[in-house]
Amino acid sequence: MKIAVCIKRTPDSESRFKIAASGAAIDETGLKFDVDDFAGYAVEAALQINEKSGGGETVVVALGPDNVQESLRKAMSMGADRAVHLKADAVPADGVAVAKALAEELKTGGYDLVLFGKHAFDTSAGVVGTAVAEFLNIPCVTAASELSVANGQGTARRELEGAAEMVSFPLPAVVTIDEGVARPRYPSLKGIMAAKKKPLESRAASLGVSRVTVQKMELPPERPAGRIIGEGVAAIPELVKALQNEAKVL
Amino acid sequence: MANVLVFAEARGGELRKIAFEAVTAARALADASGGGEVHALVAGAPGIAAKASQLGTYGADVVLVAESPDFEKFARESIAATIAERAKSGGYRAVILGFSAQGRDLGPRVAAKLDAPIATDVTSIEVSGESLVVKHPGYANKVTATLVITGAPVVVSVRPSAITAKESAKAARVETITPVAASGPVITVTEVKEGAKGRPDLGEASIIISGGRGLKAAENFKLVEDLADAFGNAAVGATRAVTDDGWRPHSDQIGQTGRQVSPQLYVAVGISGAIQHLAGMRTSKTIVAINKD
């Protein structure tokens, strides 16, 4: 099957973040960047689908400045066959504009399946994949926690609040991948060497004006320090009193 | 003056808490925009119209009801098309949804259909001239972004429990509208697996009791269940370590890659407080930790 996986480069989610001097971005000094966690699951899912069927092609696509090529090489070291880099000075905060640029690239690719992470760690917005499906006018399954495809049909599981739904859908389709579908593999040394020679095309992204701008970024206020109420059963009366009188939650 | 369209979510024949929160947000936005009307759109299985007038209590001037048997199983393509069609026809300043499982699926569909900018999972909305200024926690709640979003309309989804539903009685006029069919191929829901009955959803609960690996064994999770029962109407959550070990279903996971919750009271039982877990519950109002250390 011909599968496209759209990936994003984001900072390590376990980092401690600081705000840049501009006040409208994070300070990237010292941060480690890699393929976004959910996008990594999507790459792995695509590789497994094509390995199982014993053929096909996995193409990774990323929009952004030149540094996204590192992420594309990483995905190719995992096993993706080739990469497309849509050049832009930055990834705009307008997810619909990003989706339009990606859809423009994907529409002529003849893909059976287009995968995304369910959202990217940095913006945590979850817009682009679904909007791409709209622009391509193909079905979209969001936040799939299980996925299988065969014979032009897909099935997936989605977690809802307090329930789960099983869905089936015709291909071509867009699926955004939640955790649970596949643990991304580590690239092998052979994979890393091979990735250096795999094709990576780079061309300008057709981005319009961003209608969403970041005015400010700030760290959430620190929580006031906690206090130790006591130990064991003896602590319960005071805890209940504190919840009733101070926190007023009981 | 500009009107605001709001999607008021229903499931299982009832309006959900997020519907009242979204209508509250829409009311505040309409008032801040010079006193426009709030039009709440409800999509549900036949019979949902009987519930529609409740939305007046939270400030809806008009409730638009689209009924279809397909909406029972969340026919998302048709619901999105119905919202978008209405948004196009009405000259709305904004389309508001909740950032629930339904709303996070519908929002980007509606925005793309309207070619409108969207901000998702926001915790506040303010008006600034022709733009809206919203706060959105990103980086797994570790950084809060203030976004300026400009367009007519714009699409905004509000984080569950971030905006408290507030009464603002309007005598809502209920109108029936015709569902709009999907424009392309659709997905089919083959089965809905209901979770444990009788407990509120993690996103909606005001009290959450959560267990971690400190409980030592799956069977000890009964203690967490018992505590939740003792509170009457508490939800039960878990850490990733616990769901990875299969003590609890994946859907119970709270944290960076699981659910993000903001209850009034969060009781952490045997949870060390890894940064990934904190990312999912740090916005809780009061946190009680029961732990060895």
Describe this structure in words.
The complex is a heterodimer of chains A (250) and B (293). Chain A is of the alpha/beta class and 250 residues long. Chain A contains 6 helices and 12 strands. In chain A, the strands form 2 sheets. Chain A has a 9-stranded mixed beta sheet, with helices on both faces. In chain A, strands 2-3 form a two-stranded antiparallel ribbon. The N and C termini of chain A lie far apart (56 Å). The model of chain A has no long low-confidence stretch (mean pLDDT 95). Chain B has 293 residues and is an alpha/beta fold. Chain B contains 6 helices and 17 strands. In chain B, the strands form 4 sheets. Chain B has a 7-stranded parallel beta sheet with strand order 7-11-6-1-4-5-12, with helices on both faces. A 4-stranded parallel beta sheet of chain B has the order 15-14-16-17. In chain B, strands 8-9-10 form a 3-stranded antiparallel beta sheet. In chain B, β9 (131-138) and β10 (143-150) form a beta hairpin.
Brief synopsis:
The complex is a heterodimer of chains A (250) and B (293). By secondary structure, chain A is an alpha/beta fold.
List its traits.
heterodimer, A: 250 residues, alpha/beta, nine-stranded mixed beta sheet, 6 helices, 12 strands, 27% helix, globular, B: 293 residues, four-stranded parallel beta sheet
- Element-by-element helix/strand order of chain A: EEEHEHEHEHEEEEHEEH
Mean pLDDT over all positions of chain A: 95
Number of H- or I-type helical stretches of chain B = 6
User: Helicity of chain A, in percent?
Assistant: 25-40%
Strand content of chain B: 25-35%
Poorly predicted runs of 5 or more residues of chain A = none
User: Biggest sheet of chain A: strands, sense, closure?
Assistant: 9 strands, mixed
Strand order of the largest sheet of chain B: 7-11-6-1-4-5-12
Which structural class is indicated by helix and strand composition of chain A?
alpha/beta
Q: What assembly state would you assign to the polypeptide chains in this entry?
A: heterodimer
**Which shape of chain A, going by the Cα principal axes?**
globular
* Residue-averaged pLDDT of chain B: 93
N/C terminus separation of chain A: 56 Å
Poorly predicted spans of chain B: none
Distance between the termini of chain B: 56 Å
